[in-house]
Amino acid sequence: MKRLFAVILVVVFALIVIAANYILGPFIPAKTLPVKTSDPWILQSNNPANKYGTYLGSGRIGARIGPTGVGWIDGKPTDCFMMGIYQDEKIIPLPQWSDFPIYDERGRRFQIDRRSPYRQTLNMREGYVRTELTLRSGLQKLTGEVTFFISKSENPLAYDVAAISYRLKPKFSGKVFLDYALGSASEWKNVVLAQTIPGGSEFVGRTKEGQGVIVCASVRDADGGIVDHEVELRRGREIVLTKWVAFGDASGCAPTLDRRRPYTAWVTTGDMLEAARGRLEAASKAGFAKVFAEHKKAWRQQWASDIIIEGDPEAQ
Predict the structure, then answer these.
(1) Distance between CA atoms of 291 and 314, rounded to whole angstroms?
(2) How far apart are CA 41 and CA 103, in angstroms?
(3) CA–CA distance, 272 with 215 (Å, rounded to integer)
(4) Average pLDDT estimate for 100-125
(5) 27-41, 98-112, 229-243 — which is least confidently predicted?
(6) Do the Cβ atoms of 152 and 293 come closer than 8 Å?
(7) What whole-number distance in Å separates Cα of residue 72 and Cα of residue 54?
(8) Could you write out the DSSP letters of every residue in 74-139?
(9) Which range has highest mean pLDDT (84-88, 151-155, 305-309)?
(10) What's the pLDDT at 4?
(11) Surface-to-core class of residue 49, CB atoms within 10 Å of its CB (0-12 exposed, 13-18 middle, 19+ buried)
(12) Containing H/E element for 269?
């Protein structure tokens, strides 16, 4: 009888520990990863409770990135903007593209595990944000990093392209679900196209003043293949998921999704949409590593000094 009672106590205690781990986990203070650099061009934070986010832009397109490494702060998506796109004399946000949520089988979003090591790095010398973290939903965990950049490469196939890349190792086996739909475009008065495509979504809109914008998004695997909404994970097997986003400025184009007719000079919105689709496809096929390397090189060149002063450096 005493042995049975002892076994029951052990089981009850174990259940209490599991319940506490499940319920209180998100509220326990985070472990920190040390700041690894003294380079003033590289800013690091080990505070996952930052509610202000980190701004990243290419000079044309900008986004605010939350502690999870994507455009999501304090339970809601952040605004994204494109230079020169106005409506009613104020800048108008693009359909939300910078969020990249992952959900468990019960529809719960994976959030930061505050008990696990965390660090977010803004590299201003090379123009990207990298977040090292563990995402958690209940007892399920995904550990790894998120890299976010908006391409500044002059390569025509990577111009006005952004990427959000997860490199994660699951601590469980099972299914997760991706949401690759673009966010609400409620402020846009004229939505020409808003559709879901295999592995992604597309948006074409025009402001009241006639400015046009195109946003195409698609989630791909490490080989550039289209990723389904449902992803099967295996414990300990790393997975790479990259959300590619291509943008187009259709201002001044003919407001039709039809392609330009032969021997005519007026470019259409349909032409710009096809161009954005082509850039997205080219970037995803080239691969994250190659496009990211070109982007970092372009940023380093932007900051390189082009001033040459003749004479002895010691005398200057």
Answers:
(1) 40
(2) 34
(3) 10
(4) 96
(5) 27-41
(6) no
(7) 11
(8) TTEEPPEEETT-EETTEE-PPPP-S---EE-TTSPBPEE-TTS--EEEEETTTTEEEEEEEEEETT
(9) 84-88
(10) 47
(11) exposed
(12) helix 269-286
C-beta separation of 268 from 259 below 8 A: yes
CA proximity to 159, closest of 307, 21, 294: 294
The answer to whether 250 and 206 have CB atoms below 8 angstroms apart is yes
Angle between helices 288-303 and 269-286 (to 10 degrees): 100
Tokens coding 196: 């879901």
Instruction: Give every CB contact of residue 297 below 8 A, 6+ residues apart in sequence.
Output: 153
Closest CA to 187 of 63, 94, 300, 251: 94
Q: What is the pLDDT of residue 313?
A: 65
Residue 291 has, within 13 A of its CA and on its CB side, a CA count of 32
Are 257 and 174 in contact by the 8 Å Cβ rule? The answer is no
Q: Which two tokens stand for residue 284?
A: 């995803």
Q: Answer whether residue 271 shows pLDDT above 70.
A: yes
Name the pairing type of β-strands 119-123 and 42-45: antiparallel
Q: Are 129 and 122 in contact (CB under 8 A)?
A: yes
**Number of alpha carbons in the 13 Å side-chain half-sphere of residue 315:** 4
* 178 — pLDDT class (breaks 50, 70, 90): very high
User: What gap in Å lies between CA 200 and CA 223, rounded to an integer?
Assistant: 16
Q: Are 215 and 207 in contact (CB under 8 A)?
A: no
Query: What structural domains and CATH numbers belong to the chain?
Result: 28-303 (2.70.98.50)
Q: What is the DSSP letter of 212?
A: E
- What residue type is 97 in one-letter code? W
Q: Are 206 and 127 in contact (CB under 8 A)?
A: no
Q: Rounded mean pLDDT of 35-59?
A: 88
Q: Are 145 and 130 in contact (CB under 8 A)?
A: yes
Q: Tokens in use for 163? A: 């990427």
